[in-house]
Amino acid sequence: MYSLLDNFRVVEGASFIAAPSCTLHLAQMGAEVIRFDHVRGGPDYGRWPCTDDGVSLYWEGLNKGKKSIAIDLGRPQGRELAVQLATAPGEGRGMFVTNYPVGGFLSHDNLAKHRADMITVRVMGWADGSTAFDYTVNAGIGYPLLTGPPSLGDAPVNHVLPAWDLLAGSHAAMALVSAERHRQTSGAGQEILVPLGDVGLSTLGNLGHVAEASVLGQQRDRLGNDLYGAFGRDFQAADGRRVMICAITARQWNSLLEALRVVDKVNAVQDELGVSFERDEGLRFDHRDRLMPIIADAVAQHSSTQLARVLDEQNVCWEPYRSMREAVAEKCQPDPHNDHALFRNVEHPSGHTYPTPGTSFMAMGMQRQTPLRAPRLGEHTDEVLAQVLGMAGHEIGRLHDDGVVAGA
Amino acid sequence: MYSLLDNFRVVEGASFIAAPSCTLHLAQMGAEVIRFDHVRGGPDYGRWPCTDDGVSLYWEGLNKGKKSIAIDLGRPQGRELAVQLATAPGEGRGMFVTNYPVGGFLSHDNLAKHRADMITVRVMGWADGSTAFDYTVNAGIGYPLLTGPPSLGDAPVNHVLPAWDLLAGSHAAMALVSAERHRQTSGAGQEILVPLGDVGLSTLGNLGHVAEASVLGQQRDRLGNDLYGAFGRDFQAADGRRVMICAITARQWNSLLEALRVVDKVNAVQDELGVSFERDEGLRFDHRDRLMPIIADAVAQHSSTQLARVLDEQNVCWEPYRSMREAVAEKCQPDPHNDHALFRNVEHPSGHTYPTPGTSFMAMGMQRQTPLRAPRLGEHTDEVLAQVLGMAGHEIGRLHDDGVVAGA
Question: Which of A379, A371, A336 is nearest to A353 (CA)?
């Protein structure tokens, strides 16, 4: 984490991936993030994967570096506390991130009654208010029918990565920081709605899919692992190990042919067809039925070790397919000799110490701080009530006695 | 688009998806974005999909609302112009987004010689500087071997959505706005590196995959379309139409059973196993071999129209699988009666008018402006030279005459 967002406090009332990942980004950029949860934990508190003791490793991953206050949200007094936290006064405060329903006690209108310049960021399903999760948005916008080999016919392939949740989280963070910047000069608050559906549909527009359907009246075929519009696919080395190779620029294409010593074979195809694959990556896609076998044969003549050597010598853009366990073992380990390393070993509330990432980016002129662990549920209840709401010890004690709040 | 980012100018020297999508977000939030390209266009200028005339619909989608200046970057004078643009003085300026190599004339160190408080955001491949694209990062971190039906054995399934590019773009935008906020008080510039690889690997950490492998010594099986750790999958209606249904919360689970009238059948399974599916979504996953057939049978007894009615009546979380063409027809059309609608019809440089999205989020208190079209290559060359670099007409004319710049 880095100290980029000074004097920036966000209150979170949320669960699952999208909204919690928004505030995770903010926390790792130096913001103070206070997450409130129901006293028994929100609906994501036991989400898989879990340890044998039932501690959610998912929750631990998504709530790193946040403060946790546990409130009985079923009671009016608890709800009032949540509203007070979100709307507490001061510069760089008054920001709330949620996936609670648009109406109700955490509506922007209700919060804005307590603080006129409130910034509320609400992740939701479809823009019209109907329910959606990442998995249903993905089904509804077309990618599952384009994913996977054509042999699957019309059977959809869901993605495993919750891409729309993650994109919604980072879009929400980007919007919130921008809205706070705007508030600094205008004094104006904002209600910002981030529908997962609009994250998906705007992506279809930004990547040209909407134009493709509207202008060309077409959509892509199910291409398996072939890269659309350029050269790329999975190949198999002599020992069965699979690699992804792609060549988008002219340099990458030439490097690949050099590395695999297939320049002559490809030239023969070019001469026959009267085209230049170097100058137009689209032609490499159009004629992939001619090019793929040449590359596949050459790859299959190398062991994966030999292949790695010849491809790296020519700076070809490639990567071995790794299982997730291999990826964790090879790519997610701390490096004590690198101040900017992504992972450090951190002990978490589950009692386990494991490699833990900070921000996805490096701020080269700042010190990269060790990522903070997730809180235990309610670990900061008393601290938050005292520091944010200015409550005295006996008041906090009474809230505990009355069961309105709980500690860790 | 919205006017959130006032007095915020970013210069872009980039291509493909990640960095251009970063500045697309910024432009749609009101920033002034000036993209420079080589006089014949960058390596993404002809990227598919293209119109019959060879205009890239992909480029049009990713560069909406930006200004374009075309420069001969192969010549020292052209390179100097690019540096001058990126480092031009003034508050809310001095921000550069790129995917050019770390070294060379657009290095942060070189830019910082011209402007000490420069903020440079550089999207790259792996953090160690080695080349990677979205497709190779994805291969390297494990998702392709978890995606798709188990019948595929150990064959990888690449994603079609360039999720790592898109996430890198929004992470870069979030980091840039945060760095500019920091500069406002500290006066300090930043060099920010956003490796696609670290975007992927940090995601593995945030979602619990690293902990899963490190603590539990395990990774997920290839689950096909089954939702990990809860209830969800694709099902097929009587008319063959497929739907995604999921139930994560207790309410969603109960709604699904009510809608499909299978409460009794599920209760019988609960009684037999001595468990409560309502209270623990993990049990729904553990016993999915018992639950899935019940739901699948019930779904198969409905036509897709009937199914939609009974599921919607109970607010079940579901969605029909759509082809991308269906998604564009049903979900991407402008709605003149909704001021906050995502899509509006915009005429683009290709000459085609088609539905065009603005920001993925809605700022409810601001006016949503019509999305701007992408520029023609070099459309703003003269305007940018005059306004940003203060050049006189005869100086600009000489640059044209010398072939250092080009217009549209």
Answer: A371
Interface test with chain B among A133, A178, A279, A326, by most B beta carbons within 10 Å? A178
Long-range CB contacts (< 8 A, 24+ apart) of B260-263? B260/B295, B260/B298, B260/B299, B260/B310, B261/B298, B262/B294, B262/B295, B262/B298
Question: Helices B196-206 and B163-186, interaxial angle, to 10°?
Answer: 100
| Cβ contact B364–A227 (<8 Å) | no
Reported as a single tens digit per residue, the pLDDT across B327-341 is 999 999 999 999 999
Predicted TM-score (pTM) above 0.90:
yes
User: Between B47, B228, B281, which is nearest A229 by CB?
Assistant: B47
Report the distance separating Cα A404 and Cα B262, nearest Å. Answer: 38
Handedness of CA B363, B25, B204, A353 (dihedral sign): negative
**C-alpha to C-alpha distance for B22 and B184, rounded to whole angstroms:** 21
Cα gap B207→B321, rounded to integer Å: 26
CA distance B285 to B290: 10
Does the ipTM exceed 0.95? Answer: yes
Crossing angle for the helix pair A163-186 and B163-186, to the nearest 10 degrees: 20
Q: Report the alpha-carbon distance of residue B180 to residue B68 in Å, rounded.
A: 23
- Asked if A406 and A39 touch (Cβ cutoff 8 Å), the reply is yes
The tens-digit pLDDT sequence of chain A (408 residues) is: 999 999 999 999 999 999 999 999 999 999 999 999 999 999 999 999 999 999 999 999 999 999 999 999 999 999 999 999 999 999 999 999 999 998 899 999 999 999 999 999 999 999 999 999 999 999 999 999 999 999 999 999 999 999 999 999 999 999 999 999 999 999 999 999 999 999 999 999 999 999 999 999 988 899 999 999 999 999 999 999 999 999 999 999 999 999 999 999 999 999 999 999 999 999 999 999 999 999 999 999 999 999 999 999 999 999 999 999 999 999 999 999 999 999 999 999 999 999 999 999 999 999 999 999 999 999 999 999 999 999 999 999 999 999 999 999
- At B151, the amino acid letter reads S
In whole angstroms, give the CA distance from residue B340 to residue B129: 42
Which among A139, A157, A98 is positioned nearest to B317, based on CA atoms? Answer: A139
Is A297 an active-site residue? Answer: no
- What tokens does A53 get? 């003791």
| DSSP secondary structure, B299-326, as one string | HHTS-HHHHHHHHHHTT-EEEE---HHH
A360:B168 CB<8 A: yes
DSSP element (H, E) containing B242 = strand B242-247
Distance from C-alpha of B269 to C-alpha of B265, rounded to nearest angstrom: 7
Within a 10 A sphere around the Cβ of B92, how many other Cβ atoms? 17
Are A126 and A195 a contacting pair, CB within 8 Å? yes
Closest CA to B34 of B79, B73, B65, B6: B65
A 15-34 residues with CB < 8 A to B: 16-17, 21, 24-25, 29
Maximum distance among all alpha carbons in chain A?
88
